[in-house]
Amino acid sequence: MKSDLDPLMAARELQAIVVVGDELYSAGRDYLSNGARITGGLVIKRRGAAPVLVVNPMEIEEARDSGLQAISWYDLGWAQLLEENDGDRDSTQVGMWQRALQRLQVPPGRIGIYGTAAVHRFIELLPELGNLEGYDFCGERGMTLLDEAAMTRDAAEMQRIRRVAAGTNATLRATWDFIASHRAVDDIVCDAQGDALTIGALRRFVRRTLLDYDLEDTGMILAQGRDAGFPHSRGQDDQPLRCGQTLVFDLFPREHGGGYHHDVTRTWCPGHLPDEIADIYETVSRAFQVALDAWDEPGQPARELQEAVLDFFEGAGYPTPRSEPGSEVGYVHSLGHGLGMAIHERPSLSHTSDDCLQVGNVISIEPGLYYPERGFGLRLEDTLTIDESGALVPLTDFHKRVLLPLQG
């Protein structure tokens, strides 16, 4: 949680952290800045103090709306520095970092750099930052400070996450009903005029519906038939929906303009359900329940849930990442992941994960089976959280029926 930042900084011997971002949305910057809608600048957090935003003067009011202290470039003497550096903006930026750290009374020592920005610019900038007397700028690999802090959610974060979940669930219901309002014509899903419903048209419907709930699409998967057999195939917009084929619908929207995500997958067969698909779907449904049944209590290694699902699939004769590493059929991925302001965060629910599950985690559970050359793939996914009682609680409440009936 955000309240863990100071002890996590102390454990890393960091006097301060600087989070960069050069786009409208940057997960790390959004996390520390209370969602300020700024397109650049820095967030600086001194250990033991609240974060401070250092921004373009044009965005000072947006920054102040965050409720945090905001400082503009002009407050730090940008114009003077630019003149002193003969118009060299990189040298001026280095001077700005120095003045900002001094103004915020950051003592000499290690400064952690996080966030997202143009890599080429920071490769050039870091040697010059390293020349600032008294400060040692450093990065981090593996479980980073922001990864560790964001693994658990406080009450304010959970309120936002639940709003995203509610809008996502409503969008699922609307999409099911929209497809169900069509009819089958020669095994093609068609509207009342006989025009085929394409994946592209369905995708546009989903995007419009998400906007009604102040959510935005971040690259949904709508893949049918053979395409559904590849877990991250986005689907082909010009394809009509076909009856009796699996349609993998993986929806992972976030708050409009950036923010928290929800992640859910349903597999639907419009019109009719072939016996082979029904049998495979039942297997995936049982695997989902196996994962839930493997949950015990906070502190449990995350890999134990995946291992239970691996045991189940392998016992049923399906390849897995443990039994047949590199296999492109069967169960080919991990069981799930944490999610928040990025769609993939810690903890990892792979069988090689060292993460442990804790109160405040928000995670996905998403077993699936994939056979592209047999013309299908299936996945089921819910987002869940571990609440204060230690229970694993679903945030996805949409049903898991696979057969999607059409109009007569």
Give a description of the structure.
- The chain has 408 residues and is α+β, with helices and mostly antiparallel strands.
- The chain has two domains: 2-149, Creatinase/prolidase N-terminal domain (Creatine Amidinohydrolase, Chain A, domain 1), CATH 3.40.350.10; 151-404, Creatine Amidinohydrolase, CATH 3.90.230.10.
- Helix content is 32%, strand content 21%.
- The chain has helices spanning 5-11, 27-32, 60-64, 78-84, 89-103, 119-129, 145-150, 155-180, 199-212, 275-294, 303-315, and strands at 14-21, 42-46, 52-55, 69-72, 109-116, 135-138, 183-185, 188-190, 215-216, 221-224, 247-251, 254-255, 264-270, 337-338, 345-348, 362-365, 368-371, 376-379, 382-386, 392-394, 403-404.
- The strands form seven sheets. It has a six-stranded mixed β-sheet, with helices on both faces.
- Helix 10 (275-294) runs antiparallel to helix 11 (303-315).
- The mean pLDDT is 94.
**Helical content, roughly?**
25-40%
Might you state the CATH topology name of the largest domain? Creatine Amidinohydrolase
Largest sheet data = 6 strands, mixed
Mean pLDDT across the residues is 94
Structural class: alpha+beta
Query: How many distinct beta strands?
Result: 21
CATH architectural grouping of the largest domain? Alpha-Beta Complex
Report strand order across the widest sheet: 4-3-2-1-5-6
User: How much strand content do the residues show?
Assistant: 15-25%
What is the CATH superfamily of the largest domain? Answer: Creatinase/methionine aminopeptidase superfamily
The total of helices stands at 11
Return Rg in Å. Answer: 24 Å
